[in-house]
Specification:
The chain has 2 domains: 3-52 and 274-407, no CATH class; 56-267, no CATH class. The protein has 14 helices and 13 strands. The chain has helices spanning 3-16, 18-53, 77-80, 87-96, 134-138, 150-154, 164-170, 213-220, 239-253, 269-312, 314-322, 327-363, 372-398, 402-407; strands spanning 60-64, 102-112, 114-115, 125-130, 142-145, 159-162, 180-183, 186-194, 199-200, 203-204, 208-212, 228-232, 265-268. The strands form 2 sheets. Strands 1, 2, 3, 4, 5, 6, 7, 8, 11, 12 and 13 form an 11-stranded mixed sheet that branches. Strands 9-10 form a two-stranded antiparallel sheet. Strand 7 (180-183) and strand 8 form a beta hairpin.
Length: 409
């Protein structure tokens, strides 16, 4: 009997037993849905993280006191006990290091309210003090106005460059260039506005004000804060050599003893992405294990339903074999029914998983993704489940003696 005809018979059988088929499908749907939803969400988050990390800039890396990503708790004593990276250390590094293109020393204070004479923001903005090289090291662009000049740094100029959230809150329908803002009772003239970056993981990337770092430290002092240092290597080929040069010089400046670990952290786009991938793989393992259990249970359910179906259709099988149907055709028919059942459940689970994973990802401002590799894996696994758990019932149907089957009541 042609395969097309066997498929048609299998589909008609499932159509005639809709409730049973739906109940059997549910196990497959749950198993496939769980793995696809989690993989879609993780891929979406990963794409969002990698996009955010790439904001650091080309061939750029950061030096700071604490690791950029810490899993499993807050900043532990190992990192808290490190001495702060001071502004003076940053200046000495800038003078002594030889293998870099740009270097920006950065100082930040958080939870600030930005004001004008009429309006004010919520107290969830941050203020940063930076050098002119900040733009190259952080892949930022001034949309209009200008950025800080060396003269602004030398003169401790009371000027500011704004993130777009500040403009939206304080200068709606007004050109902010030349206007004044107030932060902690200090007044600054706006000289520039950054291009909007948008949100990532529910947090804005535009809720900040930047000042010349000398102005920042004149207002907030130099103590009780550790500097961030952003560095751009001369080229991709010299990236590793640049990192080695910075590590050697900074260890000397901070008096790290030979044999002891660095008293600072260095991270780049690549290292952070590797760290994120290393972390998310454990979620994937967990999702895979949960889905395996769900699919195993669903497979047992399919075997049970198919055995019941064989029993109910014994006389039908006897009639078919009596008029010439071969055991092989009966075997293939029941295998096809099991595979089609699993594939239908797989397709429904994949669709629901992709939709659910992306909805959760969109809630966290991650891009929409389709995990094509896991879609293919899901369909292959469903076929494997159908064959593995359908072969025994199919074999039982195929070996029925037509005379005994016709007598069956």
């Amino acid at each position: 009997m042609p395969i097309i005809e066997l498929i048609s018979i299998a589909l008609n059988t499932l159509k005639n037993n809709k409730i049973r088929a739906a109940l059997t499908l549910s196990g497959i749907v749950i198993g496939v849905f769980s793995i696809i939803a989690i993989m879609t969400l993780l891929n979406a988050l990963q794409a969002g993280i990698e996009g955010g990390l790439n904001e650091l800039g080309s061939n750029t890396y950061q030096v700071q006191k604490f690791p950029a990503i810490q899993f499993g708790g807050g900043r532990n004593s190992k990192y808290r006990n490190r001495p702060d990276i001071t502004y003076d250390q940053g200046i000495r590094l800038k003078e002594k290091a030889t293998l870099y293109k740009y270097m920006s020393i950065e100082d930040y204070v958080y939870n600030k309210t930005i004001k004008t004479n009429k309006y004010q923001t919520n107290p969830n903005f941050y203020v940063g003090g930076v050098l002119p090289e900040y733009l190259e090291c952080n892949n930022k662009t001034v949309q209009y106005g200008r950025f800080f000049s060396p003269t602004d740094i030398e003169r401790n100029a009371k000027v500011a460059v704004l993130g777009m959230d500040v403009v939206d809150k304080l200068f709606q329908n007004v050109d902010p260039i030349g206007k004044d803002i107030i932060v902690d009772n200090n007044q600054y003239q706006v000289i520039g506005v950054f291009q909007k970056k948008g949100e990532g993981f529910g947090q804005s990337n535009d809720n900040f004000v930047l000042l010349p770092i000398t102005t920042m430290q004149q207002v907030y002092g130099k103590n009780n804060r550790s500097m961030n240092i952003a560095i751009q290597a001369p080229s991709k080929e010299l990236f590793n050599e640049s990192v080695e040069n910075i590590v050697t010089v900074l260890r000397s400046i901070r008096k790290d003893k030979p044999g002891e670990p660095d008293s600072f952290e260095i991270y780049s786009n690549e290292s952070l992405i590797t760290q994120v991938n290393s972390f998310t793989k454990y979620f994937k393992y967990g999702a895979g294990f949960i889905s395996f259990i769900a699919l195993l249970a669903a497979g047992i359910g399919i075997m049970n339903i198919m055995l019941v179906s064989v029993t109910e259709r014994t006389k039908e099988i006897g009639i078919r074999k009596a008029i010439g149907a071969k055991s092989r055709s009966v075997l293939i028919q029941f295998l096809i029914e099991a595979v089609i059942l699993c594939e239908l459940g797989g397709i429904i689970g994949i669709f629901l998983g992709i939709v659910t994973g992306n909805l959760l990802g969109m809630y966290l401002n991650s891009p929409v993704v389709i995990p094509y590799d896991w879609v293919i894996i899901g369909l292959v696994v469903c076929s494997a489940v159908g064959i593995a758990f359908g072969v025994y019932p199919a074999y039982q149907a195929a070996k029925l003696n037509p005379i005994d089957a016709l007598r069956y009541e």
